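User: Just a sanity check before I run the rest of the batch. Below are the structure tokens for the first item. I only need the designed sequence back.
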């Protein structure tokens, strides 16, 4: 069957249904926007895609504060970990079933290594120089409670409670 016969057959079937055939099928543009609008939309899309690296390249204060707090947390944890073993009981022999309480009061000293302070990325924050605003050391109270119990055969049992 030729294309003309196909169109005639389609027309006669549509005429019987009471409708007219408008001719061959038309291709419909899914985006009925004129060409200048498409170009403008494409230009905005490319501009936005090019601007994303600019936004990503700008550092935020949040990143700087996160690095500063990580540094401060690391310095404090290192100092407390070093100082935690400084107040153990003196090694003396306990008599069996005797108890020895011990209270230790003191002041701990945590030095901060400012040479490892993070570099500040945001210029307005770097102008304030937060590394110099922080102290070189931190003092903290140190309270430690010990309880030792002498056991038979020259052994003992100890409990230690500290505020850090």
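Assistant: Here's the designed sequence for the first item:
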């Amino acid at each position: 069957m030729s294309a003309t016969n196909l169109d005639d057959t389609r027309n006669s079937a549509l005429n019987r249904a009471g409708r007219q055939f408008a001719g061959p099928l038309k291709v419909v543009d899914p985006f009925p926007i004129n060409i200048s609008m498409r170009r403008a939309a494409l230009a905005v899309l490319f501009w936005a895609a090019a601007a994303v690296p600019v936004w990503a390249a700008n550092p935020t204060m949040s990143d700087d504060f996160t690095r500063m707090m990580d540094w401060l947390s690391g310095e404090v944890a290192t100092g407390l970990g070093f100082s935690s073993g400084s107040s153990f009981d003196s090694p003396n022999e306990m008599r069996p079933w005797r108890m020895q309480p011990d209270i230790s009061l003191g002041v701990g000293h945590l030095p901060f290594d400012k040479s490892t302070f993070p570099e500040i990325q945001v210029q307005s924050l770097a102008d304030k120089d937060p590394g110099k605003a922080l102290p070189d050391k931190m003092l903290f109270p140190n309270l430690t409670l010990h309880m030792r119990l002498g056991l038979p055969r020259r052994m003992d049992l100890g409990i230690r409670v500290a505020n850090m």
